[in-house]
Amino acid sequence: MRQVIELDVHGKPVHVLVRSEPELEGRASLWPSVGEYPIYDPFLYTTMTTDEERNKRFRTALEQLAPGRRVLDIGTGQDVVWARESVRAGARQVTAIEVMEDSFRQAAVNLTAYGLEDRATLLLGESTSLAFAPQADVCVAEIIGSVASAEGAAAVLTDARRRHLVPDGVIVPHRAVTRAAAVCLSDVLGEQHIAFAAESIPYLQSIFNWNTSPFDVRLRIENASPDALVSESAEIESLDFNGTLHTAQQTTTCLAIQRSGRIDGVLAWLQLWCLSDDEPLDALRMKTNWASIYCPLFQEPVPVEPGDTLDLVFASSLGADGVHPDYQLSATLHTADGRTHNGSLESPHRGAHFRTHPVYRLLFPAP
Ligand SMILES: C[S@@+](CC[C@H](N)C(=O)[O-])C[C@H]1O[C@@H](n2cnc3c(N)ncnc32)[C@H](O)[C@@H]1O
């Protein structure tokens, strides 16, 4: 069952299509992408603090890298998890930074409760604006999005390496990659389920309030199944935190369609290495707080067969705040009957694009 509800965004009504029954455990559901906005709350922090698939990788890296070193934890969050793990691993000193005031206040309470005040210093602000000394040997920053770069990791860690780290400093995580494959949204979610999960609406409201107007938020799919992929997958962006790190990039890939079906966009998801020789976390195949992001490309689903190909161009460039990226995708589908189908998506971090694709017109019906 779906219903249309009305949000008030700075005095203007915005209609939103919402699922009226609670989501079933493990079933695919639709949320706005939340990580790239300053709307973290205790629920979101808890989903990360209890994400063992994620935490074991960061913990292992810190156990290896932190002993005797100065550690910088960028975006420590309310639970100061990596500051805590660094001290536990034997760090000489930890500087933890948090930009959100409420989270900073709770982090200060937790730092004292964990008895870390002597070994860890907490700073309020954005790492890109703060200056402090001495420089750190190790920087840990879990500012990785479901599209890897979405939370600003490329710009923030380029700045951290330039100003906050010693010349041979090491960054955790080591590498993040976003992969993509062709899908049809109604096959990912089920035809009747293209609507926001009811629990996600307070977050959608917070994102719109922060932007001061509605816009086409990135679409986060919880519990997407790899069975929904219609094509092979390919890497569309790569962030090498201990190598050459780019704040803008463009990739062109050709995805072979692998089975009969239909497609109207691509599903993008994260692979993450905390150490260079790690088994990567794969957000599509493992239970983790990261989800997949559906990017609509075509105006309607297009039937495909094995042998068809999807040429996909993915470009990211820094958005208006100089930290969070805007994305542009364009695609050309070549089908066996000799036809081509073109599709595209503009996905800025924030802005005025609203109801630009059929799926957004369905999710945000005209008032
Ligand atoms: C994904 S959460 C991670 C929280 C915690 N470190 C963890 O791993 O569970 C990212 C946190 O980083 C903060 N943040 C993002 N960019 C930041 C920056 N440049 N400087 C300081 N804090 C930042 C956000 O407010 C948020 O609390």
TrEMBL record:
Q: Which CDD domains match?
A: AdoMet_MTases (cd02440)
Source taxon at top rank: Bacteria
**Where are the membrane-spanning stretches?**
none
Would you tell me the protein name for this molecule? Protein arginine N-methyltransferase 1
Q: What is the lineage of its organism?
A: Bacteria, Bacillati, Actinomycetota, Actinomycetes, Kitasatosporales
